Amino acid sequence: MGAALLRSDGRQACALVCVTGCIAAYKSCEIVRLLQKAGVRVKVLMSEHATHFVGPTTFRALTHETVAVGLIDDPQDPIHHISLAQEPDVVLVAPATANVMAKMAHGIADDLLSTTLLATNRPIVIAPAMNTGMWEAAATQENLSTLIARGCEIVRPACGRLACGDVGSGKLASVEDIAQRTLEALGRTIAGDASGNLAQECAGLLQGKHVVVTAGGTQEAIDPVRYIGNRSSGKFGYAIASAAHAMGARVVLVSGPTNLPCPDSVHRIDVVSADDMFQAVDAAFDGADILVCAAAVADYTPVRKADHKLKKANERLDCIELVETRDILASMSARKGDRVVVGFAAETDNLIEYASSKLASKGCDAIVANDVSRSDSTFGSDTDKVTWITADGAEELPCMPKNEAAFEILRRAALLYR
């Protein structure tokens, strides 16, 4: 097992794994082991039907904890569903049947598992597994939308051969993916720096708000093969989108080409060029409260885009005529009204001077200035050292992981909105 993952109060972080009646229940054993390897204390709660697939003894041997099944099976704890609801830092339902998802969506509490899920206020991660017909049924999809709207994290099922022999969507996602998403939800709950738990401090700050985030770079086509681009990885923008969701916002992520997975419960709009991104942001901005322009949008695009691959033998590329792209940050700032617009500035020198000039020329509310010449703050790094710049001045923030910096930026944006 890995070193214990500790909460800010020094106690070991705890996950409650809820196992429901599905053939994929046996995979929950491996999920438990993966969480334990990450240093998490794991407790298991099973539905009565789940015990027909995997026995409680198996989970008791894995966790060295009592396995909860019946609503009144623990005489030492007459209100067991409340203690189970309050003890963990994150709750995982894996596998989650259509029946249990329906109970969760409609507030039905008729056994220990469903009463515990109704009583908890901890982050809930749901990994559905069921037949394709059940997964695609209108009722299941409506229940899914309800659970997402309430803030549940969904690890969507994969496509593949199902236990019934059908091939389609409904197969439980990989145990690695489920464990990772659970750890990420747990991390957002217990993560923090020396000044306190940022995730907890920021919880609810954007509840009911609509946040639009741009991320990644754009690709400006020269011909069907070549393009003008930049080194943006999209990591910071994706971290901001994920943090905005964790803070209670409804999030739209407008993303240039990247290999990053979409943060759960975030609506992603994929674009390629600067013009694509402008149109997507322009449409999404109408219903937004906050816009964070973290994307590295190309300043120029070729005037003419060839419809075939140019041959250097007779179609030389030593001179490409360029035209400026439309300025997303300035255009949205010009019509923002009471909305908050935050821009980014990636610089290699004169950071404060250039970023402050950008703040004034674009008309936005704040600029996040990033010195990409630093190895700990360059494109693709997992940390960033940024400076928050507004009309009131510049404040240099310490170097921190991108996910922590994302919470700090959104906390400041939320204060500007208020």
UniProtKB/TrEMBL annotation:
It comes from the Bacteria. In the C-terminal section; belongs to the PPC synthetase family. Residues 206-413 form the DNA/pantothenate metabolism flavoprotein C-terminal domain. Residues 211-418 are annotated as: Phosphopantothenate--cysteine ligase. Residues 16-185 form the Flavoprotein domain. InterPro entries: CoaB-like_sf, CoaBC, DNA/pantothenate-metab_flavo_C, Flavin_trans-like, Flavoprotein. The active site is at residue 164. Residues 1-210 are annotated as: Phosphopantothenoylcysteine decarboxylase. GO terms for cellular component: phosphopantothenoylcysteine decarboxylase complex. Its cofactor is FMN; Mg(2+). Binds 1 FMN per subunit. One of its GO terms (molecular function) is phosphopantothenate--cysteine ligase activity. Catalyzes two steps in the biosynthesis of coenzyme A. In the first step cysteine is conjugated to 4'-phosphopantothenate to form 4-phosphopantothenoylcysteine, in the latter compound is decarboxylated to form 4'-phosphopantotheine. Catalyzes two sequential steps in the biosynthesis of coenzyme A. In the first step cysteine is conjugated to 4'-phosphopantothenate to form 4-phosphopantothenoylcysteine. In the second step the latter compound is decarboxylated to form 4'-phosphopantotheine. Pathway: Cofactor biosynthesis; coenzyme A biosynthesis; CoA from (R)-pantothenate: step 2/5; Cofactor biosynthesis; coenzyme A biosynthesis; CoA from (R)-pantothenate: step 3/5. Its EC number is 4.1.1.36, 6.3.2.5. It holds the Pfam family DFP. This is Coenzyme A biosynthesis bifunctional protein CoaBC. CTP binds at residues 299, 309, 344, 358, 362. It catalyses: (R)-4'-phosphopantothenate + L-cysteine + CTP = N-[(R)-4-phosphopantothenoyl]-L-cysteine + CMP + diphosphate + H(+); N-[(R)-4-phosphopantothenoyl]-L-cysteine + H(+) = (R)-4'-phosphopantetheine + CO2. Keywords: Decarboxylase, Flavoprotein, FMN, Ligase, Lyase, Magnesium, Metal-binding, Multifunctional enzyme. One of its GO terms (biological process) is pantothenate catabolic process.
